[in-house]
């Protein structure tokens, strides 16, 4: 009888300390689709990485044309300002993720996602400049060219997109006249680009240092590409947690979503507390047993096996989409509070 072969090394095997704390549905998905993949920060840099899925389990992007005047939410994409999570858009056609579809259907609004320049070719502040320019264009030209309502604008983003959304919401308030925003949605946002697992400011950086997907190694890989000059990491338009009180106070009503198994959890919560202290209406939700990338895992509804587009057609009034149950919950919550802000619920 042949000797048993050793089990193949899995580059992204779940850390034993993290495993019992994770959502069981996610564990099964990770072991099947993620554990064997070599993480990008362990490889030499190659821009071709952008041609693949940012997160396993993400939906295919599909196009649609909008026909009716609607409110608009601007959503800078995630992926560490280094890899994009979808194709670019044109004035008449937008490529949409499942959350974009859900916002369109459930909150009845247009979604504009700036195709900002990416690091390392274009480090900070390129993403900030492009995202802000997009919001200004939408505010000034959106009504005449897209038929959107400039009095009902919101901004939101996930991860690096949440960082940009927080920053752009303050930049919008500084304009004369300001661009009025109904809501800022910050999902697993990066708020402090000086955070490290070696300091005590944010316990989640230590507690979740070896978490799945966005561990400290990958997060610092993103950071070093986006903002290689350490002195720039304390600028408020890089790390919004360093914004002065008088500027923070100009932020719109804000909703913050954080994941229990995310290194970014506590910096998101601390940012929310800073907003509250200066009088900004803030609500937040912590999703238990969930890792950072849950929102992007929107590829299929496991109960039906139907595509995102078909499910949205069938459940137009209540789209709840994701590979995982906790992701469906997050999408539903994001749509609900956006619809409430726009008065379209």
Please specify the SSE layout and strand pairing.
Layout: H1 24-33, E1 62-64, E2 72-74, E3 94-96, H2 98-106, E4 110-112, H3 126-146, E5 153-158, H4 160-174, E6 183-187, H5 203-207, H6 216-226, H7 245-248, E7 254-259, H8 265-277, E8 282-287, H9 308-314, H10 325-342
Parallel strand pairs: 2-4, 2-5, 5-6, 6-7, 7-8
Antiparallel strand pairs: 1-3
Describe the model.
This protein has 345 residues and is an alpha/beta fold. It is built from ten helices and eight strands. The protein has helices at 24-33, 98-106, 126-146, 160-174, 203-207, 216-226, 245-248, 265-277, 308-314, 325-342, and strands spanning 62-64, 72-74, 94-96, 110-112, 153-158, 183-187, 254-259, 282-287. The strands form two sheets. Strands 4-2-5-6-7-8 form a six-stranded parallel beta sheet, sandwiched between helices. A two-stranded antiparallel ribbon has the order 1-3. Helix 2 crosses helix 10 and helix 3 (126-146) packs across helix 4 (160-174). Mean pLDDT is 82; it is low at 61-69, 84-96 and 300-322.
